[in-house]
Design goal:
alpha/beta; globular; three-stranded antiparallel sheet
Length: about 425
């Protein structure tokens, strides 16, 4: 395959001039119109997921906090969680006074290993956090069976799985409660924010009463987020990335990428930090959500087609591992992740060929120092943390780009000196 026209960015922030216009129209609307926008969005989202109640919130973190509070979690309760997750999830659990009980994952889909769950259950276990990873639904049917057997409540972490399905039913609609995250890099981007979903009317009422005590999100913060997403949208546009951003990375900015990433990394959540994010979802965010929910299935389906093309090409390459395609789920491929040893060498090789890739943000929380009291051995999670590599998968990526990336990876492993071996 010949040389591609543009360099390829690891991500592409999804935004549009239409979204900008919708945001500004909502920003200058009156209070009644703003209230109606939020109600309309919540009803549309509930209908999309297939639940009775949908409650907009300011973030995925506060969604988990509200879910636990709404389910009457008390200090000392235990919650079964996958070890392979984002640390913010564990931080919220600890701030609620709960004890996280880590369970290792399966290599085939990066979700919790169901075979290990029951041995972790004690008399203090009250909850299971069913996490759908990278857009791929977990084995929620088996989790529900275990929960019913042991009288546990199931919370669905669908932060990475908006639009994903298990046996034809949307993620988020299985447990007592579920939640989503609408961050800047998600397939559903409302400048931050999230959604809680449940069929329990009383639970929904309790959570809404708690949100009433939250303060409105400041206008300056909304505008700051808007400017941030506009800047990232421009910087990840293929022409701009190729002519401006990639040359800067090539000339030495990559040496500082760890420090730069650290600047944008969410700081460890504290009680004070939690209080800072106790804000209400805004009408402007709701307006963005209403625009996107009409096209969400189309957006997801396009990514799925591209992921399948990656799967076909990468599955035949010795030296890497891809996740299993399961017939009982609709995996929306929020991220396309492969497993590779000597990750840094492959990253450097791809970068020199014009493809910018990065390791992921999900880690093995079961061995982190800040969670030392709850540390346990989860070898699969630890291995995946060290081997995960996020390949580009976004609207700007063409089929030709995908074939080019796959060809580069195949060429890399064909070189004797770079051959990798995975157990």
């Amino acid at each position: 395959m010949g040389i591609i026209s543009f360099k390829i960015s690891q991500t592409r922030i999804e935004f549009s001039f239409k979204a900008l216009a919708v945001f500004l129209k909502a920003f200058y609307s009156d209070k009644k119109k703003k209230k109606n926008l939020i109600e309309e969005f919540e009803k549309a989202f509930a209908k999309y997921v297939g639940v009775k109640n949908s409650i907009s919130v300011s973030s995925g973190k506060i969604a988990l906090w509200l879910s636990l509070r709404g389910l009457n979690a008390i200090k000392g309760d235990e919650i079964i969680v996958p070890a392979y997750t984002v640390p913010e999830v564990i931080e919220v659990i600890l701030l609620c006074g709960l004890r996280p009980i880590f369970v290792d994952i399966c290599f085939n889909d990066a979700t919790m290993d169901i075979a290990l769950v029951e041995e972790k259950i004690t008399s203090r276990t009250k909850f299971v956090l069913a996490t759908h990873m990278y857009g791929n639904p977990c084995q929620i049917d088996k989790i529900l069976d275990i929960a019913k057997k042991h009288n546990l409540k199931v919370i669905e972490d669908a932060a990475q799985a908006c639009g994903a399905e298990f046996r034809g039913k949307k993620t988020g609609s299985f447990g007592e409660i579920g939640y989503f995250s609408f961050g800047l890099t998600k397939n559903f981007n409302t400048l931050g924010g999230g959604m809680i979903v449940t069929d329990d009317d009383e639970l929904a009422f309790t959570i809404r009463k708690k949100i009433e005590l939250f303060r409105p999100i400041p206008a300056w913060l909304l505008l700051k987020r808007l400017l941030t997403v506009l800047l990232l949208w421009i910087c990840t546009y293929p022409v701009v990335f190729s002519l401006c951003i990639y040359p800067l990375l090539y000339l030495g900015l990559r040496r500082w990428e760890n420090k730069l990433c650290a600047m944008f990394k969410v700081r460890q959540l504290t009680e004070a930090g939690l209080n800072e994010i106790k804000q209400k979802f805004s009408a402007e965010q709701a307006a963005l959500g209403l625009v996107q929910i009409r096209t969400l299935n189309t957006v997801n389906d396009e990514k799925i087609k591209k992921a399948f093309l990656f799967n076909r090409r990468l599955s035949r390459i010795n030296g890497i591992r891809i996740f299993e395609e399961r017939k009982d789920v609709k995996n929306i491929y929020l991220n396309y992740v492969i497993r590779v040893e000597k990750r840094k060498l492959l990253m450097d090789y791809l970068f020199l060929q014009g493809v910018y890739v990065l390791p992921g943000f999900v880690i093995d929380c079961s061995h982190q120092f800040i969670f030392e009291e709850f540390n346990t051995e989860c070898p699969n999670s630890r291995k995946l943390e060290n081997e995960n590599l996020y390949l580009p998968l976004n609207s700007a990526l063409s089929g030709e780009n995908i074939l080019y990336i796959a060809e580069l990876i195949e060429r890399y492993y064909a070189m004797d000196q770079f051959k990798g071996q995975l157990v």
